[in-house]
Amino acid sequence: MEFEESGIGEECGVFGCVAAGEWPTQLEVAQVLTLGLVALQHRGQESAGIVTSNGASPPTYTAHKGMGLVSTAFPPEALLKLRYGNLGICHTRYSTTGISELQNCQPFVVDTLHGKIAVAHNGELVNAQALRKKVMRHGVGLSTSSDSELITQLLALTPPMEELGAPDWVARIKNLMTETPTSYSLLVMFKDVIYAVRDPYGNRPLCLGRLVPISKLHKVSNEDTEGWVVSSESCSFQSIGAKYYREVLPGEIVQISKHGVKSLSIVPRPEGDLPAFCIFEYVYFARPDSIFEGQMVYTVRQRCGQQLAIEAPTDADVVSTVPESATPAALGYAQQSGLPYIEVLCKNRYVGRTFIQPNTRLRQLGVAKKFGALTDNFAGKRVVLIDDSIVRGNTISPIIKLLKEAGATEVHIRVASPPIRFPCYMGINIPTKEELIANKPEFQDIAGYIGADSVQYLTVEGLVSAVQEGIASLQEKENMINNRNKSSSRVGHCTACLTGKYPVELEW
Amino acid sequence: MEFEESGIGEECGVFGCVAAGEWPTQLEVAQVLTLGLVALQHRGQESAGIVTSNGASPPTYTAHKGMGLVSTAFPPEALLKLRYGNLGICHTRYSTTGISELQNCQPFVVDTLHGKIAVAHNGELVNAQALRKKVMRHGVGLSTSSDSELITQLLALTPPMEELGAPDWVARIKNLMTETPTSYSLLVMFKDVIYAVRDPYGNRPLCLGRLVPISKLHKVSNEDTEGWVVSSESCSFQSIGAKYYREVLPGEIVQISKHGVKSLSIVPRPEGDLPAFCIFEYVYFARPDSIFEGQMVYTVRQRCGQQLAIEAPTDADVVSTVPESATPAALGYAQQSGLPYIEVLCKNRYVGRTFIQPNTRLRQLGVAKKFGALTDNFAGKRVVLIDDSIVRGNTISPIIKLLKEAGATEVHIRVASPPIRFPCYMGINIPTKEELIANKPEFQDIAGYIGADSVQYLTVEGLVSAVQEGIASLQEKENMINNRNKSSSRVGHCTACLTGKYPVELEW
Amino acid sequence: MEFEESGIGEECGVFGCVAAGEWPTQLEVAQVLTLGLVALQHRGQESAGIVTSNGASPPTYTAHKGMGLVSTAFPPEALLKLRYGNLGICHTRYSTTGISELQNCQPFVVDTLHGKIAVAHNGELVNAQALRKKVMRHGVGLSTSSDSELITQLLALTPPMEELGAPDWVARIKNLMTETPTSYSLLVMFKDVIYAVRDPYGNRPLCLGRLVPISKLHKVSNEDTEGWVVSSESCSFQSIGAKYYREVLPGEIVQISKHGVKSLSIVPRPEGDLPAFCIFEYVYFARPDSIFEGQMVYTVRQRCGQQLAIEAPTDADVVSTVPESATPAALGYAQQSGLPYIEVLCKNRYVGRTFIQPNTRLRQLGVAKKFGALTDNFAGKRVVLIDDSIVRGNTISPIIKLLKEAGATEVHIRVASPPIRFPCYMGINIPTKEELIANKPEFQDIAGYIGADSVQYLTVEGLVSAVQEGIASLQEKENMINNRNKSSSRVGHCTACLTGKYPVELEW
Amino acid sequence: MEFEESGIGEECGVFGCVAAGEWPTQLEVAQVLTLGLVALQHRGQESAGIVTSNGASPPTYTAHKGMGLVSTAFPPEALLKLRYGNLGICHTRYSTTGISELQNCQPFVVDTLHGKIAVAHNGELVNAQALRKKVMRHGVGLSTSSDSELITQLLALTPPMEELGAPDWVARIKNLMTETPTSYSLLVMFKDVIYAVRDPYGNRPLCLGRLVPISKLHKVSNEDTEGWVVSSESCSFQSIGAKYYREVLPGEIVQISKHGVKSLSIVPRPEGDLPAFCIFEYVYFARPDSIFEGQMVYTVRQRCGQQLAIEAPTDADVVSTVPESATPAALGYAQQSGLPYIEVLCKNRYVGRTFIQPNTRLRQLGVAKKFGALTDNFAGKRVVLIDDSIVRGNTISPIIKLLKEAGATEVHIRVASPPIRFPCYMGINIPTKEELIANKPEFQDIAGYIGADSVQYLTVEGLVSAVQEGIASLQEKENMINNRNKSSSRVGHCTACLTGKYPVELEW
């Protein structure tokens, strides 16, 4: 048994860029795409792909895909090949389905009667099987199991078939949105335009940024725009010199071209349905410097820690964290509880994958090669250890053992999110129901099972309030842009993996 | 210009293990060696090597070396090959000389009249050139530029040439130690014994550990020994289930066999000389959970931060760190100054090496793809940012820029070590004197040069006192083991890179 | 200038196998496929792919594709993955279009309403552009430029859309054959059946074989069948223990299942058209031990040499060959002319691709690292050197230079095929018209240009007669199988690259 | 059981080059070395190495070594690195000892008191163990098992130790030659000179060539020299534009510098001993276009075939060859016997290494994927098949099976060399005595064992006479150069593997 990661994971990240000057431009779009993708690497590490377009009529598309991290998948010759693009979209992927082959990698490019389109997709179509049947009934063969190919063929197929006039891709995208409610944050590139699309429930994130002249990063006016970017997370803006502009709204279709950003339409949700942005983006997946719904993820995590300190106070000496993702929650807990914050573990940055076939001796040990105990900081003390989530329960256990062997008198686990109990069908990789510790008999005595002195979780209500407390009324913002559609403006989040309440019926 | 690491680096780490049971034993020595090496990976990432011995007479040695991280250099088939060793030594290397080829990798194995010996070395012989000449004058050709080959040939060559009796390797090691004063922490494996050697000045670290039954990690008696390990740093003990035993003393030769650990001799320093353990092991190189001279490195760094707060107080709102190495100093500074500790940067764990050939636009930006700013934590605030060292001055500058663009009103840099001004000839990779920012004209206005509102360094005296304050009298410890040699027992550290005062004359 | 290959090349080879026993069978289909593919490696070296089916209902297909030779593309783990197939098809590919990416590799698998089909194709559809348009007009997107994907989508799309009953793949294949006349030798796998299809002109080769018990290779009865194979060339049968059965006829659809081989239909050519089997398969592409139209390729090449000796006799001392492909023609020339056959060149088997950037000196030399001159065999003699074809004229020139420097007094080139003057649109990679030496001004003095004492080519008539002389009347054979279609039974070959007379109108 | 190569193999090839113009010269020595090495690739395919020197004082040496073929081991960046050499030596290696690691690769470079020397060696020192002991007794450690390192250390060590004056490498080489009689063809590079050395028995080949201006390849005068080359075989001269000059004589030391080639000395054999050039270089190892002792290897092989036809005539219809190495012998046999020469097998050029784990079916078959039978050439005929040697007897057997299944009525094997019965200790890789078919009980009925109708071998006397017949009196040539040493001038060859008579006592 290797010492493994937590077992939940994001499926993908998408990113796009359009240079705003006259083309061909000095701005190297492929470089911006690569850096943007590197910043989204935490959302998928199995493969990466970039497609650029020169924006001409007809356009020349250049594509490169590769397995592994962006740094592996994009050697210098790949970047050289891509360098003439004036716009482009890219994708980084972690496969939930287990089939991790190059041909499933995105973006997907297909040649249609009206020219080539490229599609990058984050999410999972809840009614993918029904849609596949539909497409195939029309006589189309599907060569991969990817939703991205399915979406692309749906776009190619969808009537109206405007053979004589210009292709109406927006009508086709709208049609697609009526056929599948969630979940997708989608980039569709056609010639000189990128359409950025978010599903009506806004389940996966998507936001817009503006590339500004570096010299004016401090004070930027609207005139100073070198290009537009669109990304799963705003954390990708900083390293390329882009400024956060706004989120793509649930159900919105945004057109990005060198002439700027234009909201084309907002496809509504069914009457009465709330938005359903994935709450685990806040808890675990997103990078802490990203901004969703007007608030920094780090701040939300800190609030979760504060809330946890209120809900689950501890009689202990010090508060600490399982580095690095639980640190904001630990600092919040410390602040709220008044207990001193210390570090108890240091991380081995170079742990890699060592091919250890442990003998009995090492198996007993749990092989905690990933962390070292900072013994003198906590020996003889009672430690509150904050973790962001417990999925299978097999990673926290050796850490507790390590701390106790190093001299902690008590170790109390406080988890800054509620127990995960249900599968996700909207783009998150979660172990099977049976593998989740919260569904096992051992959960009755979770503290005993993992070797802790006590274990407490944040409540669902606590999490929701920590998340929603900071959201400035979205209604006003939305109304500014789209005053015809007030129903989408209320606050709501998807908590299906915690509560089993899915935003749409699964048999949609 | 890539955003680069600080530019100083450790050269190598060494590790050894002897199984203590009857041979062949259940303990898989190769597995223990690999895990030990992974824990020392921060001391060298360019190549790794393991040599095991079955301990028989004559012994069978098995060697494997490879470029890159341990995880790359040791694929499963390599470990399979090594699995029958009952003892072994290993080495991880970062080349200071720029020649990074497989044939320079350690451990070095040579066949001698008395059988094969294997040598692993951390350090740099101050009189290597003179010793090479000497060896070659004897008629020996040297096939690499590595000190390890030189040491091996010196051991093979050194009289007395005990042709008829058993080879006296200890006499040869002593002879070697009279020929070169520093710096070396050395492992010499011969048949069923590892000799662990530290130079008389104790310039590089080396310590001993005891492998204990996992079930008795909490309460261990002397009888419960499954094996012995020796390592550059004690951080490698935890992940293999070993207990810290003690340091190898300056000048000491320790024999490790399945019968246990035995101190054979302590070769003295010249009268009046103090030990000269590298002070930068505390400041920068070592892993924070390692123990030197009885104190945890993390604690020393925290004390440096406290001392810095005393020497260089700041009128500011918050204290923070350049993650991750400066965090203990920042927490110490916060504690001492009473200012709140916050996080201002988050790290991209997947940054990799992306082949960005930045255009003018990205070059101006500094391409801070490594860090994201946690804007909301410090916008509108005056930040004290603690760094552990400033070497060339080109890494802190884009960070300051990032913080200011994200809204910090002031950024004050406090450095938890003194300026580096001099080269090291004892195993540390430091840029040339000309490249060091502290030797440049720009240093006169270092704050202006890097864009900070103020910059202050810890003093040499402050550093030395922060380090030495926590050292329990070494004299007593040493006297316990070797009561003939009191001169080596006083406290002393090498600060040559800061002060230019080298522990030995360089023309030795 | 590297010393390069001749510049013409086959595009691909296809191979298929069905185990004939009860499933799952002892016969390892993946092994047979791999060996069959290795024997077709001369038809394509850029990529290879295998798809196997377990033949169940619904079937499980397993696919593996890789770049490079079969030995590179199919490591042991790939074969392991494929081992449970009871039938399968495979493909080896050399891209003429220059786009050599994994996603263009065959076989192509698509999921359709009636289940997955897999397609492997050798040839080039003369009306591919029109067919792509047609498919896309139907709303299908095409994700590659490969004809194989196009064929697959055409099969998926073609009415009748038998939604309620079983899918009628044969009807669909027939429909495909009415839409595109040439060129394709096609394998279509569906569940437990392989359909082997050859276009009505029979432009590319395809033949059937029977796997027999090894012990009965000498004397086989019809009962002893372990499986059926289908291949571009019969040379692949020997190494797997298969016996040549017969050719797939022009226009024929053969169904291969575990129950045996069944001719389903022969789609006729337009009234009056002759078959158009590629004559260059005889001249250059095919392996000499393959059998086409009842005759061994080697024998045809020998006859070409004899015919050449009649058409172009030479006053010389010895006859020799450019090894290895021209050897049968050289032996034929020697036999007919009465001149002794000798070897003048030996080949460096290990020449590989050395990255020589020749300085002026080596460039003048022509770098003939591929061949060594067997000086003593011909020094002082007049040599007739037989080559199979001269395409660009840049490979024969350094050989002549080599022979002259080594002492040949005269070198007369006799080419066992006519000059190539026209492009091929049916699956052969030929340089552009401008690059062909026969279309250049230098061709007027080709002997002077390449440094020979004389140059003579075989005539088109000579070639055709050498090829057709040995063909037993196909008419009788065809009539046995399909007595409704006598028009396809006359002998005919495609000589378009020599004469410009294409078998179908190119704008079909 | 893979279908394997014959099982005997050359160990290595050596090559050297000195540019003759003023330095730095236009001649790219690294390119010449690479091409020279490619031509020697048949002498070793496991690793390759090049060392160049700029010839300055002190010299700068540049080395590159790699595993695999020259084309793999020397990527473009390696050649770039080596390009500034004015002279250099190189080596290609096949390890007989089974330890095939980079560190055993040649050339070996060592730093000595008098500067660096580089050594490349073909052969095997018969008294290596004694010499290793001697070197180690002097206090030298040996880091590899290679003879090349041993030779280098012997050269470094050997007195006289000329500390004050210039190093006398020639004296050292002579001293080495008195310590070990055979076998070695040796290149020693020091600064601006290459010493080419052949052992007193001349066991391994070595010859000299002159690089001439390409424009004057036809008619060269002594003035037109661009450089000097030295090589294991003359076949390497053609592709680099060099002219064969002469052999290095048994026992000779030749100095090669930019001033030309100079014979320094000839170290004599013991009184009465004949030279002992390896007769298997003629039979099997050398490339057919190489020249030894004044005669082309191809011609000798042809004579072996003629002699075989005299010794072992056959009542058959046709004569053929196992391609490609037995072809000259087959043509000789055909010529002498009057039987027609035909081809019966064609080779699959792309056979590669396919990971076939044959099931019972394929195992029975023998998996003859390497060859195809040219059925129509011999069906119904009695075939004499000439092979150059039969080592283990497992490669000829499936070929005979193939021919019989394809219709040969009889297959008679005639082997153009005598049976191999004894091990070689002088640089040839031969299977163990037990593995040699000639030492097995089955040899009594070898024809039955391999499935042939009859088997006959060339006699030792026949082989020796076929080899020696063509040698012009060496005595005169030698006397021209070295009139003091007439004993070395008689003709003699090593036939130890055939007769068990070794040229020197093995316990030397």
TrEMBL record, chains A, B, C, D:
It comes from the Eukaryota. The gene is ppat. Its EC number is 2.4.2.14. [4Fe-4S] cluster binds at residues 278, 424, 494, 497. Pathway: Purine metabolism; IMP biosynthesis via de novo pathway; N(1)-(5-phospho-D-ribosyl)glycinamide from 5-phospho-alpha-D-ribose 1-diphosphate: step 1/2. Catalyzes the formation of phosphoribosylamine from phosphoribosylpyrophosphate (PRPP) and glutamine. Keywords: 4Fe-4S, Glutamine amidotransferase, Glycosyltransferase, Iron, Iron-sulfur, Magnesium, Metal-binding, Purine biosynthesis, Transferase. It comes from Sphaeramia orbicularis (orbiculate cardinalfish). The active site is at 12 (nucleophile). One of its GO terms (biological process) is purine nucleobase biosynthetic process. It catalyses: 5-phospho-beta-D-ribosylamine + L-glutamate + diphosphate = 5-phospho-alpha-D-ribose 1-diphosphate + L-glutamine + H2O. This is Amidophosphoribosyltransferase. One of its GO terms (molecular function) is 4 iron, 4 sulfur cluster binding. Its cofactor is Mg(2+); [4Fe-4S] cluster. In the C-terminal section; belongs to the purine/pyrimidine phosphoribosyltransferase family. It is an enzyme of class 2 (transferase). InterPro entries: GATase_2_dom (IPR017932), Ntn_hydrolases_N (IPR029055), PRTase-like (IPR029057), PRTase_dom (IPR000836), PurF (IPR005854), PurF_N (IPR035584). Residues 12-259 form the Glutamine amidotransferase type-2 domain. Mg(2+) binds at residues 325, 387-388. Binds 1 Mg(2+) ion per subunit.
